[in-house]
Amino acid sequence: MAQQATASSRIASLILRILTFILLLISLIVLATNTVGSSDDDSKVRFTDFYAYRYMLATIVIGIAYSLLQLVLTIFNIVRGGDGMPFLDFFGDKFISYVLATGAGAGFGLTVDLKRLMDASEVDMLNFDDKAFASASLLLLAFVTTAILSIISAYTLPKRV
Amino acid sequence: MAQQATASSRIASLILRILTFILLLISLIVLATNTVGSSDDDSKVRFTDFYAYRYMLATIVIGIAYSLLQLVLTIFNIVRGGDGMPFLDFFGDKFISYVLATGAGAGFGLTVDLKRLMDASEVDMLNFDDKAFASASLLLLAFVTTAILSIISAYTLPKRV
């Protein structure tokens, strides 16, 4: 029974980790390609012009690196039949989910008001804000999957200690 | 030994909950009193003009309500000598710490870039951005104490199930 619960929680974790990785990757692509205007004049707007989006980028990259590490370790454990590292899972998932939560918060916090200010001043942002919004939404979804992973790893922790 | 560990983790939790409550209360006061300009003209800037600060306010109020509930329950359990509610602690601390993390993220995400935009356009914000920054910093500290509480309640959970 305990063996079965561990096996099913492992499969759930693996699926959630793959999902997190895909969400973060798309979020990264949408954010990084978010540039408006030509490079000839000063009107060009890049995501790097805003600190909040730079922070978002940092959290996404950290999230992708952690997801890749966990995917490699999980596949390694399935092949080798090891017990995994419950402490790495517990603290890693917790820490990364907080990092992604603050990243999504920063992204939305700036984008929502930026959108309103731009609409009010009738500046044409050419979907700059919409793309930022899409990227932040994907980051939020990745945070939710990591938060679920964090609950699973908290439950898996005590059985092994 | 287990009894002792539970007692010390309970005292640590109580201190952290009181600290969280105080931090959130000061953060609320700083944010809610953040108004610049006179009410006669249109130049008045309130924190409610920005969606990110409204969201911050909501997360702070939720955090304060939860802290108060937990403080009452903790004192009730100490007096009555009960076992407490490990599941409420586990999911409550986890959920509230995520709420506070996104609130702090939204607050910083807007404030950092708002400050830069205002400095660049030489608009005098009369410390509006500094007070928002202070409020977000206090919220961030409250998030850290709640994250520590969440680790403690994850460790306390399995002993009782």
Automatic annotation (TrEMBL), chains A, B:
<keyword id="KW-1133">Transmembrane helix</keyword>
<dbReference type="Pfam" id="PF04535">
    <property type="entry name" value="CASP_dom"/>
</dbReference>
<feature type="transmembrane region" description="Helical">
    <location>
        <begin position="52"/>
        <end position="75"/>
    </location>
</feature>
<dbReference type="InterPro" id="IPR006702">
    <property type="entry name" value="CASP_dom"/>
</dbReference>
<keyword id="KW-1003">Cell membrane</keyword>
<protein>
    <recommendedName>
        <fullName>CASP-like protein</fullName>
    </recommendedName>
</protein>
<comment type="subunit">
    <text>Homodimer and heterodimers.</text>
</comment>
<keyword id="KW-0472">Membrane</keyword>
<feature type="transmembrane region" description="Helical">
    <location>
        <begin position="95"/>
        <end position="112"/>
    </location>
</feature>
<feature type="transmembrane region" description="Helical">
    <location>
        <begin position="12"/>
        <end position="32"/>
    </location>
</feature>
<feature type="transmembrane region" description="Helical">
    <location>
        <begin position="132"/>
        <end position="157"/>
    </location>
</feature>
<feature type="domain" description="Casparian strip membrane protein">
    <location>
        <begin position="8"/>
        <end position="144"/>
    </location>
</feature>
<dbReference type="GO" id="GO:0005886">
    <property type="term" value="C:plasma membrane"/>
</dbReference>
<comment type="similarity">
    <text>Belongs to the Casparian strip membrane proteins (CASP) family.</text>
</comment>
<keyword id="KW-0812">Transmembrane</keyword>
